[in-house]
Every structure is written in C-alpha cells, then in structure tokens.
Design goal:
- Chain C: It holds the Pfam family AIRS.
- The complex is a heterotetramer, with two copies of chain A (about 90 residues), one copy of chain B (about 230 residues) and one copy of chain C (about 750 residues).
- Chain A is of the alpha+beta class and about 90 residues long.
- Helices cover about 30% and strands about 35% of the residues of chain A.
- Chain A has a domain of about 55 residues: Mth169, Chain: A (2-Layer Sandwich).
- The longest helix of chain A has 15 residues.
- Chain A is elongated.
- Chain A starts with a strand and ends in a 10-residue tail after the last strand.
- The C terminus of chain A is likely disordered.
- Chain B has one domain: Class I glutamine amidotransferase (GATase) domain (Rossmann fold), CATH 3.40.50.
- Classes of the chains: A alpha+beta (about 90), B alpha/beta (about 230), C alpha+beta (about 750).
- The complex binds adenosine-5'-diphosphate and magnesium ion (MG).
- Adenosine-5'-diphosphate (ADP) binds next to strand 4, strand 5 and helix 17 of chain C.
Chain lengths: ~90, ~230, ~750, ~90
C-alpha cells in the first residue's frame, strides 16, 4: 500500500486567523525569529494498488473538487516513499 | 466572611459573566481575573470559564495555557487551591497537564448544544460535595471539542482511583471515552468537565434547572468552614 | 506604476477608465465627471462605483422604501429611525434595544461557511456601532430542495458558518427559519439578525464632526478581501505588475470580532468616541464617506497609514477592501491616548488614519499625494435613484386562478392520518433541531426562550426581569401568489409569534429578498410587498426601524419567490410571565383562537401532498391580529394561559404536534361544529393561535375573549400519549416524534 | 527567508473522525481505492535568519511543547527547500 499526501493551505492572500494566532503567541512563549505562520491541513491517503499516473490524476481531481475549496485554498499532491526521510514529488 | 471566587477572562472567554453570576448566587464574592495578570487578587478558588479563548485556534486551550495568569494558577493548584475548569476551562487544564488526557473534536464533527444528563461519580471533590454520590443531574452542554481521550492505562487509573467525576448518561454527546464528562486530580481540588453548571443556576433561564448550583455551594462551604 | 492623483486626473481628462467593468452605467460615469468637474481618479472611481452599486445605494429600491418613513405609525418607542446602522427602540426602564436583519445571500452560495459566518459578523458590527452590547442572533435561511445534492453542500456549510462565528462570539442564537424550495436552488438566502441592548444615553451615531477630531481605524489588518471587482481597476488603469487576482471571498475571524466587541464596549463606557461606523460592504470607502457625509465638516485621510495584511495592495484596493472585523471611530484628540490603550489591552490594532477638517470635502492622500477630493454626500447619500418600470406579470392571474381549494382532499380517515404524518415529516415542517443544536443558545445566561419556541426571548435586566422577544417570518409561497398580502402575512405571523410568547410587539426590521429589479415583474413584486408591509406596519402601529434589500436573487431568467422576511421586536416587563409553547400539564383545556376558513392557497398541505402552488394566500385581517395579540398578552400576564402556539404553515395539526412533542404530552381533539376535519387540521387561516388553559381559568379566559369579540372555541384537552382527533384517527406521540425528527438528519447527516 | 514545515498528525491509535468522514464520502463522490484517510495539520513557518542546527532544535521544542499536544499527536519537522519539488528531511 502506498501513501499519498495532500497538503491544503489557504491561498496566500486569504486571511489565516489560526496561523496568526499561533504566530502572535510564539514570542510570549520565548520563540523569536518566526516571521510568519500559516496553518493548513494535511491529508494522508492510503491507496490500494499502484500509485500510477491514473491514480494520481484521480487523487488530484479529488483534491481539487473535495479536499480543497479552491475558492480559498491551494493544494499539493505528493507520493510519500516508504522511508520517513522521503523525497517528495509534486 | 464569605469566600472569594475568581473567574479568569482570557481573550475569547465567553462564560465568565455567567460563572461570576453563579458564584454570586451561591453566596460567594465573585472576583474577575485578567489573563495578563499573574496576581490572583487573593481569591480562595478559581474558575476557568467556557468559551473560545484565542478562538480555539491551534487546539482548544493551547494558547491560553501559556498566559501569565496560568503560571500562578498552575503553581497554586499544585499547592492545593481549588480550580474548576468548565468546557474551555477543562481544555486549558488538560493542556496545562493539571489534568490528564486531552480534548478532541466531537466524533460527529459538529458543535453540539443540548440539555445533558450526567451522573456525579465522585461527590468527594472540592467542587462536588453538595451532591450525593451517584446523583443524576441535568445541565447544558455546548462544545465543539468535547471528546475526552486518554490512553488505556490512564483511563484505568482514573477509574480505579475514582477520579472520573462525571459521566454522561443516556447519550454520549461527543464520543468521549468511557462516557467521561469530567475528571478530578488526585487531590480532588482540580476538577474539569465539559458541561456547563454555571448555566444551570436559575429556575427561569436556559433549561430552567438549577442543578449546577451545587458546584458553587460545594466550594463555598468548603472554603468558609476551612 | 504612476499614481493617479487628483492633479494627474485634472491634467489627463481623456484617459479612458474602466467604469463599465466596475458596474457603472454611462450616465452614472458622466454624472461623476459633472460632480467633480473633471474625470475621477482611479481611487475616486473605485469609491463611486462601489458606493453607487445596488447593494450600497439602494438605487432601485429607494423610491419604494420611502413609504416606511411616510407611512410610519405614531410611536413613542422609536429613538432612532431608518437610516442609521440600525434603528433603536425604547423598551422602558431607561433601556434601548437595537436590532436589524441583513442578507449575505450571494457570498453564501459561493463559499457557504465563510459567506454565512461573515454575514453574522457584519450584522453584529452594525449593532455594536449603535453603542449596544449584542445579546442575541437569529438566522432566517432558505435553501433549494431538501433532497437536491447541492443543498447537502450549501446547508451544512451555512449552518456551520453561522454557528462557528456566533458561538465563538458568545451570542446565543435564539431563533430563525429554515425553508426549502427549489426556487432557492441557485440562490440560497442567508439572512442574519442581531439584537443589542444599551441605555438611552449610550446611543452612538455614525457621524464625523468637530474639526481636529481624529479618525481611528481599528480591528483587523486590511487585506485583499472581497475586492475581486476593483482589481480590474488596478490592472486596467495602471500597469499590471500587481497581483492579478484578488479573492472575492471574505474570511471571518470571530475571535478578532469578539475582541473588537469587548474593546469597543469598553471604549464606549469611558465615553471616548464622538461618532463610530463599522466597516462592512465597501469597506473604508463606505465608512469614511458616510461618516463625513453625516457630519458637519470634511475629512482628511492618510491612506498609507492603514495597517495592511498584504503590502502589495494599491490605494484603490485598500479603499475597497472588505476585510472583516474592522471599525472606524471619530475621537477627540485628548482622548486618543486612552483609546489606543484600551485597544492595546484587547490586542486590537488601532491607527489614527486622519482627522475631521474645517472644509467640506473628503480628501484622501497616499504618501503625501492627493488621490481623492470629493464632496462626501455625493458618494454616500446622493447616489443615483431609479424609478424602475414595474408591471404585474402576465402569469399572475393564471396563478391565482389555479385554486388550491379545489385540490383533491383526503377521502377517508386513514388518508387524513397519512397526510398528517406526511406533513409533519416534510422537510419544511420537520424538526430543525439537527440545525439548531449546532448553535449555542445558553451563553450569556439570559436566554428565556429559544428555538423551537415561537419567539426568542432574552432577559435584559436581572433585577427587574425586563425582557425582549424577537421572531422572524416570511413565506415566499404566499408572497408569490400575492406579494402585497404575502408581506403582510409575514408581518402578521412574526407579530403573532412575539405575542404568543407574551411580549408586546413594538417595532420591526426586515430583509427584502427578491430577483432582478431590471425585470418589471420582479419590480412589481417588490413594489407590492413594500406597499403591503408599510400599510401593515401603519395599521399595527409597529414602525419599521431599518432593514436590508437583497436583489438579483435569480438564476438566468428565473427569480426566487419574492421573500420578504419580517422581524418583530417585542417587550415583556417580566420574563417570568412568558408563555412557552409546550403542552405539559395533563388535563388543561385547549382553545383555538381566531377564525378558521377554507384557505389552502400556498399552504404546506398543498405543497406536501400535491406539490402545488396556486390560488390566493390566506386573508389578512390586521385588526384581528391586534386583538389576538392583546388577548395572548393579557392571558399570559394574568396567568390565564400556560402555553400558546401560533398557527401558521401546516395549520392546527402542525402546531398541536409541535406543542405536544415539546411537552411530552398527548392531546385529544374534537372537530368543532361547522368545520370538517380536513379544514380544521390543515387550513392556514391567519390570525389564529392555540392555547392551553388551566381548568380553573377557563371561565375567566372565555369571558375575556367573549367580551373582546375574539372567537375562541374549545377543541380538546391535553391528555395521554397520542394525538387523537375524535372520530378520525389517533397517532402515538412516539410515531409523530419519529416522523417529525428523523427527516432532517436523514437528509443531511 | 527559509521555510520550515511542521506536520502534526493524531497518533495512530487515536480515533480521527475527520479523516473517517472524508474517507466515507469518497465512494459517494466516485473515488474508489482509498483504504484509509487521516487528517492532520500542517504549519508553514517562515524563519528569519539561517535554519541551522540551533534553529531547528528550537523549532523542534516549539513543536513539542506548543504546536503539537504529544498526549495525542505526533509531529515531524522538515526544512523546505526553495523548489516546490523539494526533498524533505526529518
Ligand atoms: N435557522 C434557524 N436558526 C434558529 N432557529 C431556527 C432556525 N430555523 C428555525 N428555527 C426555530 O425553529 C422554530 C420553528 O420554526 P418555524 O416553523 O419557522 O416557526 P414559526 O412557524 O413559528 O415561524 C422557531 O423557534 C424558529 O425560531
Ligand atoms: Mg411560530
């Protein structure tokens, strides 16, 4: 079984209240030097069968129509290799 | 002389006025506390009220837990000061590790507001002595992140030590493990629960019940006789 | 990128400008040139275009809305009338209450969660801007067919958005409406209402006066929200190096709004503001021009001082941005320091962006260069006014001739019973608790009544038990059959709901949801509905305090049903006397108040059983409504009735079912003389309610009705655990409950 | 400015109703062959200055004490290279 990861983030121009709240809290906790924080969603999909072109195309469509709301969000699809220290491809 | 019960206002706290009112109706002297002040104004007990402090952003209670007032509260709670966390307050207490476990998004993924039946499983805490062991009460419940989780060992420990203070009856509204609605620390001075006793203190408003008043009369008795 | 300054505009009269893309008409553009005596700068064009849009200028509706003022009834209750952010009503004991309904229809279709959430945020700021603490919200909603796949997308998102925002603000949601009809398929209606309370002396108005006073913008940073349209300007007037696409969707931050509320209330308490305005549609353009227009002098704004979320925004975009959770205040110079301190306390960003001037112009600068120099009234209050043609549609006669009273009726008792079950289970009549359980109705600890009661009621004084009640209603099917009567029926129903809870109706707000004003048939519906509402308010003595108009709710050529939503505000001196809807005392007598006629046009029965819309809506008799209300209020005050429920969609059987389920008790009903069982159960005649009377009070109550001339007929008794109609059928409460409560979760969960 | 990504996922033994709801909806939308879905959070941090060992150690601590609640969540910290098709390191 292979894992495909879909990351969904608010478009850069869209307000991200969660990310802002996190960022504002950091200095209070003693963490400086973080200029910006954006918070998004990460979906880990376990795919039955091979992750070939066709499967990726379907997942891409799924991300576009369902996992992300493209009015306000962008997404990326990556196949995750077996190792944790994996390379990522878009 | 009566006891002073402090209620903390964090940015985004909503039920602070209600908690102050409940304390007053029980006969205590209500005192407002501010998240930026380490000073607890010599209160005898503290209520962390419900709401969406910091918008519940990141995780419910996660940001508030690091506020200056919490530094003092954590210290004092460990030294025995009674602390009651209601809803968001309960979430803050778990984030602060004053109580074990964590609160997660309701299993049905919706905010839920209802009149909820509970059983008081431990009438020996600082906040529950005016109830009978096993007494059934009904108070409003309203939350988005009310699912109590902890690992099996912790749950078993809580059960064995009688630290499950309240359990949901009839219906588990959020998927909390073992129907847990509230718990207490070992010493019984720190109690957290998801439902809202402070909304059930007057016969007319809300659901029209006063089952929640016992929390406030319990602590008052304890403090005044102490 | 050259800045289009006032000077530059004067020197380059022939530059072509994208007025058309910004939605202006040719004559409107010509008028702007005439007002200014030159071509507008890009920034000025942006301001005029958005302020002269239908949404901001009410250019199609204004001539009709005038009637609300002209026909306003005498009332001592009105402290602030139409024209401000919201009207203000005197409810006694020194308290003033402000309330208003607004629409967020189009955004909620595109992005249901954020559209609905920002709808709540916007109306709450309106109420806050009047000086009041917001105390409750309500949400009248309309969706497409309940079983349409898109409804499954829109409804859960809208409900989550309303809950997500309102719950996080700590405002109890005390009522609303959910109606399904395929006419709303591409145009769901998301209306939101907010109620606020203050003392008389705390009323604030949106005006800028006192030369030298500072203009402070506070709240969220300004980003590129909701300025999709204006980006045209940035790219067409200037080179296109800036970001090409700006989001049309605004994202709300309820946490920020909660801080804004507390911060603003503290600022009010210390008496630090002269004038105040919320930022909603048209953002800073609207706030600055309206404040300056309503004030005595001019205003000078340094736009580059505005705190930005996105440094690439052009001045036009900053002026247009609809970023949420912002307010604009006029503050005397020696109070500025304290004002900023309070903002800091609440983690709210605040900036002095300008000041009130001696002059009469609104002048805006960008890094020292002037980009706007306009008479503010011409932007804010003297926009175009259209007398749009209107005409009774050709199909109206045929629609009214298609008489619902002639539809086949149930032939047997069993069929009657099956239709009752079908009715109470139909999406429009079914329990909405799957929705309303997602709203906090307890927060603030003052909720006396909330859904599914007839009206929402909150206590406003803990010592005296003074309270207010609000109900909202609107029936698009009735209004389609006859918009004049339909608007009055919405008014009557809402009025009746408030009275049924024991409160005295005082004033109204409304949200008028219609199709395109460019269609003469729609314009006729609008004209008729406003005329009906104004006449009705005059007769009932309840002035219109404000409201909102939403036009262009249509898909292609097809408009939604005309949907005037009416909110009535009432006062109750002692909330302990409120009347709940639940039948809970075994043995109490049930009385039907008012007159029942064969009236099925637009009825729930005709829709559920026959999928039919035709004929005439129920007759309106506002004198009767008044009398009914007086009896309901007196009955509650004097302890003669223990429960009351108004009759509306679905008729008597619907009302009795709801009251029985709420109280967990059954009822035995007898069909009164002169009525057949079908008409008794399903007719939707207006001006009626069912009440539960303790036996000991029966005589006193019937005497009162007799003396006042209100028909009151005993129809049964609270008893058992079934709803039984003698000689016809009996349905166990458990079966009714299953039918009534399973529908919505079945469709949506 | 460099970007560091912190991914936070619920521990495997914790029920993830959000992921489940997504998974249950997929067949209805015509997407088959996804055996499991987990939903988590992704934080994109823009870091001022160099992302060296020390900076990463601080971010790791921030993740552990603040961004994740380790009672219920696991996290990973990755430096994101400039390119979109980036390599990832734990
Ligand atoms: N969207 C909503 N939000 C809050 N309350 C609602 C909503 N929809 C319906 N309700 C409540 O449910 C109850 C029944 O609604 P409805 O049948 O429209 O009432 P009525 O016939 O009295 O107008 C009312 O109390 C109403 O306020
Ligand atoms: Mg009603």
């Amino acid at each position: 079984m292979a894992r495909v990861v879909v990351d969904v983030m608010l478009k850069p121009e869209i307000l991200d209240p969660q990310g802002q709240a996190v960022q504002r809290a950091l200095p209070r906790l003693g963490f400086d030097g973080i200029a910006d924080v954006r918070q998004g969603k990460r979906f880990e999909l376990e795919v039955d069968g091979p992750v070939d072109e066709a499967a990726l195309a379907r997942i891409h469509e799924m991300a576009e129509t369902f996992l992300a709301n493209t009015v306000i969000e962008d997404f990326t699809v990556k196949v995750e290799e077996t190792s944790e220290v994996a390379g990522a491809s878009k | 002389m009566t006891a002073r019960i402090g209620v903390v206002t964090f940015p985004g706290t909503l039920d602070d006025q209600d908690a102050l009112r409940a304390a007053r109706l029980a006969g205590a002297e209500p005192v407002s506390l501010w998240h930026r002040d380490k000073d607890l104004k010599q209160v005898d007990a503290v209520v962390l009220a419900g709401g969406f402090s910091y918008g519940d952003y990141l995780r419910a209670g996660a940001i508030s837990r690091f506020s200056p007032v919490m530094e003092t509260i954590i210290e004092q709670a460990k030294a025995g000061m009674p602390v009651l966390g209601i809803c968001n307050g309960f979430q803050i207490l778990t984030e602060a590790h004053l109580l074990p476990g964590a609160m997660l998004r309701n299993n049905h993924l919706h905010f839920i507001c209802r009149d909820q039946k509970l059983r008081v499983e431990n009438a020996g805490t600082a906040w529950t002595s005016d109830y009978e062991q096993g007494q059934e009460i009904q108070v409003p419940l309203k939350n988005m992140d009310g699912r109590y989780v902890a690992d099996e060992r912790t749950l078993d420990e809580l059960e064995a030590e009688g630290r499950v203070a309240f359990r949901y009856l009839d219906m588990n509204p959020n998927g909390s493990l073992r129907d847990i609605a509230g718990i207490t620390n070992e010493a019984g001075n720190v109690v957290g629960l998801m439902p809202h006793p402070e909304h059930a203190v007057e016969p007319l408003v809300g659901t029209g019940r006063t089952d929640g008043l016992g929390f406030f009369t319990s602590i008052l008795k304890k403090l005044v006789t102490a | 990128m050259t800045l289009d300054t006032v000077k530059h505009a004067a020197e380059t009269p022939d530059v072509s400008q994208p007025w058309k893309e910004l939605g202006l008409k040719e004559d409107e553009y010509a008028r702007i040139r005439e007002i200014l005596g030159r071509r507008p700068t890009g920034a000025e064009l942006a301001m005029y275009s958005v302020m002269w849009s239908e949404h901001c200028s009410y250019k199609s509706s204004k001539v009709h809305l005038k009637q609300f003022g002209e026909k306003a009834p005498e009332s001592d209750a009105l402290l602030v009338g139409i024209g401000e952010n919201a009207g203000v009503v005197d409810v006694g004991q020194g308290y003033a209450v402000t309330f208003k309904v607004e629409s967020h229809n189009h955004p909620s279709y595109i992005e249901p969660y954020q559209g609905a959430a920002t709808g709540v945020g916007g109306i709450v700021r309106d109420i806050l801007a009047m000086g009041a603490r917001p105390v409750a919200v309500m949400d009248p909603l309309r969706f497409g067919a309940a079983d349409h796949p898109d409804t499954k997308r829109v409804l859960p998102g809208v409900v989550a958005g309303i809950g997500g925002y309102g719950n996080c603000l700590g405002l109890p949601n005390i009522g609303g409406e959910v109606v399904f009809d395929s006419c709303y398929q591409g145009n769901p209606l998301v209306n939101a209402l907010c109620v606020g309370v203050m003392k008389h002396e705390d009323i604030h108005l949106a005006k800028a006066s006192g030369a030298g006073n500072k203009v402070i913008l506070y709240g969220a940073r300004t980003g590129g929200d909701g300025i999709g349209g204006v980006s045209v300007l940035a790219s067409e007037t200037f080179d296109s190096t800036g970001p090409s696409r700006r989001p049309a969707v605004q994202v709300g931050d309820p946490f920020q709004e909660k801080l804004l509320i507390e911060c603003t209330l503290e600022i009010f308490r210390e008496n630090l503001v002269d004038g105040i305005q919320d930022l909603g549609g048209a953002g800073l353009s609207c706030a600055t021009s309206e404040l300056a227009s309503a004030g005595s002098g001019g205003m000078r704004v340094e736009l580059d001082r505005v705190h930005l979320r996105d440094a690439t925004l052009s001045p036009e975009e900053i002026l247009m941005s609809e970023s949420q959770e912002r307010m604009c205040a006029i503050v005397e110079p020696d109070k500025v320091e304290r004002f900023l301190e309070i903002c800091e306390k609440w983690d709210v960003i605040a900036t002095v962006i300008g000041e009130v001037t001696e002059g009469s112009q609104l002048e805006i600068f960008w890094h020292g260069e002037q980009i706007v120099d306009v008479p503010p009234r011409t932007v804010a209050h003297e926009g175009p006014v259209y007398h749009r043609p209107y005409e009774r549609p050709s199909w109206q006669d045929a629609l009214q001739a298609d008489d619902a009273n002639k539809l086949p009726r149930p032939a047997t008792s069993d069929e009657l019973k099956q239709q009752v079950l079908k009715l109470v289970a139909s999406p429009n009549q079914a329990s909405k608790s799957w929705i309303t359980d997602q709203y906090d109705r307890f927060v603030q600890g003052n909720t006396i009544l909330a859904q599914p009661e007839d009206s929402g009621m909150v206590r406003i004084d803990e010592e005296s038990n003074l309270g207010v009640a609000v109900a909202t209603d609107g029936n698009g099917r009735y209004a389609k059959l006859d918009p004049y009567a339909g608007a009055q029926l919405a008014l009557a129903e809402s009025y009746r709901n408030v009275a049924a809870s024991g409160a005295k109706p005082l004033a109204i707000s409304n949200c008028l949801n219609f199709g395109s004003p460019e269609d003469p048939a729609v314009m006729w519906q609008f004209a008729e509905a406003t005329r009906g509402l104004a006449d009705g308010c005059l007769e009932l003595g309840t002035p219109v305090t404000g409201g909102n108009v939403s036009l262009y709710n249509q898909t292609g050529e097809t408009a939604i049903h005309p949907t005037p939503v009416v909110a009535v505000l009432g006062v109750i001196d002692d909330v302990t006397r409120r009347t709940p809807m639940a039948f809970s005392e075994e043995g109490q007598l049930l009385y039907l108040l008012g007159e029942t006629r064969e009236e099925f046009g637009g009825s729930a029965w005709s829709q559920v059983v026959h999928d039919h819309l035709g004929g005439l809506p129920p007759q309106v008799d506002l004198e009767r409504e008044k009398l009914l209300a007086e009896i309901l209020i007196a009955g509650s005050r004097d302890g003669m009735i223990d429960a009351a429920h108004d009759l509306s969609d679905g008729g008597l059987i619907q009302a009795v079912t709801e009251s029985c389920l709420r109280g967990g008790r059954g009822a035995r009903l007898v069909v009164p003389d002169g009525l057949d069982a079908f008409t008794f159960l399903f007719s939707e005649s207006a001006g009626r309610a069912v009440v539960a009377v303790p036996r000991s009070e029966e005589l006193r109550f019937t005497d009162m009705c007799g003396a006042r001339g209100l028909p009151a007929v005993r129809i049964g008794v609270i008893d058992g655990d079934a709803v039984e109609v003698q000689g016809e059928f009996s349905i166990a409460l458990s079966e009714l409950r299953e039918a009534h409560e399973a529908t919505i979760p079945g469709l949506l969960a």
